[in-house]
Amino acid sequence: MQADLPLYPDQASNFAMSVDGLMAYITAICAFFAVAITAAVIYFFFKYRRKHPGEVGVPIHGDMRLETLWIVVPLFLALTMFGWGAVVYVDYRRTPMDTLDIYVIGKQWMWKIQQPTGLREINELHVPVGRNVKLILASEDVIHDFSVPAFRVKMDVVPGHYNTMWFRPTKAGRYHFFCQQYCGTNHALMGGWVTVMEPMDYAAWLSGSSEATANPVLAGEKLFAEKSCNTCHLADGSGRAPSLNGLYGGKVLLADGSTVTGDDAYLRESILNPAAKIVAGYAPVMPSYQGQLTEEQIIDLTSYIKSLQSQPVPAKGSGVAPATGKK
Amino acid sequence: MSATPAAVNQMPREHYLNATYGIRSWLLTTDHKRIALLYLASVTFFFFIGGAFATMIRIHLLSPKGLLVTPETYNKLFTMHGVAMIFFFLIPSIPAVLGNFLLPIMIGAKDLAFPKINLLSWYIYLIGGCFVLYSFSTGGLDTGWTFYTPLSSVYSNSAVTPAVLGVFINGFSSILTGLNFIVTVHTMRAPGMTWFRLPLFVWAQYATSIIFILGTPVIAITLLLAGLERMFHLGFFNPALGGDPILFQHLFWFYSHPAVYIMILPAMGVISEIIPTFARKPIFGYSFIAGSSIAIAVIGFFVWAHHMFVTGESTYAALTFSLLSYLVAIPSAVKVFNWTSTLYKGSISYDTPMLYALGFIGLFLIGGLTGLFLACLGLDIHLHDTYFVIAHFHYIMVGGAVMGYVGGLHYWWPKITGKLYPEYLARIAAITLFLGFNLTFFPQFILGYLGMPRRYASYPPEFQVLNVMSTAGASILALGYLLPMIYLTWSMRYGEVAGPNPWPATGLEWRTPSPPPTENFEVTPEVTWEPYDYDNRPDLGLDVSGAPALAHGDD
Asked: What count of Cα atoms within 13 Å lies in the side-chain half-sphere of residue A178?
């Protein structure tokens, strides 16, 4: 444990060390300038105090060499800060492959979290040590922000967008998470705990948890029939809409000739605003499901479509571009 | 007050304050000096309101669970604190009070270019202020001063509509002031007052005016759109209606980041006047200080999305805005280096305005340097929306802008009122403000790094010690603000008569009686000297022969 008055939070993720290193670097440079300038001001203040009432100062108007020096040197140092900061940020924004995907939904004023197995938690998040975790963030109302100071990460949770964030926990323990974007009356209560567990414990917790576990794939399959998605999206590609087999994670060829990746954000958009991206060879006949599905139901549908990833892709009647389709 | 024998000074027989009498002569005045005083009264009123909210916020945060009010009320307190302080105190304070009073006198003009529009801008300010006060008193406002959608446009149950209308209306006051200043500086300079003889305060006001007229229309239309979405359910920002909440943030910060420079640039102008006066020597690097004001105004328009690094904006956008944010730091650094160098081989007095100016350098230094932390992409992931941000912008806005404003009020108080304030009390107040400010806001940097989120009505108990320190500092700070209010008011009646140039200083405003006549000068002055040039000003009565004269550029 740290001292009673710590200066930095626990270091519990892969980002903690790099962010703290960056902090130390910038603090060192800034402290140098702050001390140097303050010392100069204080020294001049006393050294050149007015000796008699009529005294004037020495008329010095400037010095080009000094001006150049104090433009170039701070500019150089600022660019090093920019560069190092950019490296850390790009690492943070580029999610690695094979992550443990967890859905997080923010609503006034609670967090609903769904583990890959469908296990649901409220204001609690359990993750294993040493595994890359990706959070897929959605909001049901206003903008929220999911922030874990011990991991040095945060990301806004924006209605109408899917944002993602990732981290790799490095130390078992319990850490605060906060809503860090002001979201209304009980904003300050919209927090909880991240529990980082050893992988074995995490697996045991997942399987042993007695809480009702709704299988999101089954729930999604049920919805898929209930909402009559299955009348058009036939698996063999003979329907009025493309087969969804192999869609998740694949490349989709669009009517305008471009391709997109079949990820969570694309699926969500296609459910809520189908006309935004039309699959090549199909008419824009699908109705919008805006306002008819909750964020959780969209996640269930996504989970179901994800489960079709390994199903055989029909040769005709699929939006999935052939593997060589992309240049 | 060291140089001038006070006994010989007398108030001028007729001046702008006693030229006419009666309430009509004030409410219908077109004299820029009287309009400045109208603004002084009204921005002081809003400063009190905003300060009262701040006091309640700090008391509430003494305890982790919150001491004073419900979370709902707490949210209203910090929102109304921000709206009152930013839109109705900080933005108009230096331009509309000191700028209004001084800009025409400093360039040797009789008034601003459009005196009636100047009065109109004050009335517009008042109408906007009334809308906002109506919002505050009928349900309050709980959206945060940033009015983020869809919270403000759909979900908030507070009086959002009158507040956004008030801020919208108030924007026109800024636009008109900016327009007036720009035209005045271009067309009404006295003979001999070339651009590079302008006082640096005028350069700063000019740069600020550019932001006023280019930026303010954008915030006005943005808030109007949010209001329309709220009133008529038009989908601009609400995703359920096909809008995009991120669009609001782009539009909002396109103005509101330059607005930070609206607050700090005029204060930098004040400091650039005070330092040469009390070091009695020309400012070091005049053209670099003047040019850096313009550079800040221009580059400041291209950094707005650094408020949005964690909204999910594209990595390339984030890289661009981070780089530009680092560039805008350079002109600020140039100013600090030049001010510091001006002290070298000066004849430095310890008068109150100088204490404020040096306090400004110290606080602005911390405020500016901590901006480098937030501009850093990797660090901002952790620091964004924590108390680190709160501490950073209070160092800029309170430590910078308010210190500059209060310092400027002291410096020009003898000119405005013709009276001197009590010097020792004023020095004590300046030191109290400096210490109280640091105790209030420095602990918040640490709180922020530990992860305490902003806008929290309650917080985990491990953050309490630092919050208590902050509240203790705030009570010292409050004392530091009350003292000047009391003795400045007192001095208007009982203060010693100042005389035309008590410091003495070199600017044109000191070549006319204190208080000045309604037309500012008896005869239109002709400028034959360079700015801040003590050596060629025998009229100041200083002992020039005592200092070895050096040629320009020599060290």
From this structure: 28
Residue A234 lies in a domain: yes
Q: How many CA atoms lie within 13 A of B210 on its CB side?
A: 18
Total count of domains within chain A: 2
* B465 neighbourhood in chain A, CB within 8 Å: 5
Domain of B496 in residue numbering reads as 32-537
Q: Name the residue among A15, A48, A187 with its Cβ closest to that of B455.
A: A187
Name the minimum distance, in Å, from the CA of B235 to any CA of chain A: 13
Instruction: Specify the pTM.
Output: 0.88
- Reported for B23-30, long-range contacts at CB under 8 A and 24+ positions apart, including other chains, are B28/B119, B29/B119, B30/B111, B30/B115, B30/B116, B30/B118, B30/B119
- Give A-chain residues touching B371 at CB under 8 angstroms: none
Residues A233 and A195 grouped into a single domain: no
Instruction: Please name which of B326, B320, B328, B321 lies closest in space to residue B294, comparing C-alpha atoms.
Output: B328
Say what the ipTM of the complex is: 0.90
Q: What is the pLDDT of residue A210?
A: 55
Whether cis (ω within 30° of 0) applies to the bond prior to A312 is no
DSSP state of A49: B
Structural domain for A253, as ranges: 216-310
Asked whether residue A250 falls in the same domain as residue A150, the answer is no
d(C-alpha A289, C-alpha A116), whole Å: 24
Does any domain span residue A120? yes
Please tell me the distance from the alpha carbon of residue B491 to that of residue B502, in angstroms, as a whole number.
15
* Pairing outcome for strands A173-179 and A192-197: antiparallel
- Parallel, antiparallel, or unpaired: how do β-strands A251-253 and A192-197 relate? unpaired
Query: Percent of chain B scored above 70 by pLDDT?
Result: 97
> What token pair was written down for A145?
């922000």
Chain-chain contact of B71 with A63 (C-beta, under 8 angstroms): no
**Tens digit of each residue's pLDDT (9 = 90 or more) over B487-530:** 999 999 999 999 999 999 999 999 999 999 999 998 999 999 89
Report the CATH number at residue A247. Answer: 1.10.760.10
| Statement to judge: residues A258 and A287 lie in one domain | yes
Q: Does any CB of chain B come closer than 8 Å to the CB of residue A39?
A: no
User: What is the spatial distance between Cα A153 and Cα A13, in angstroms, rounded to a whole number?
Assistant: 9
A–B interface: beta-carbon pairs under 8 A:
317
CATH, residue B408: 1.20.210.10
* Count of domains observed in chain B: 1
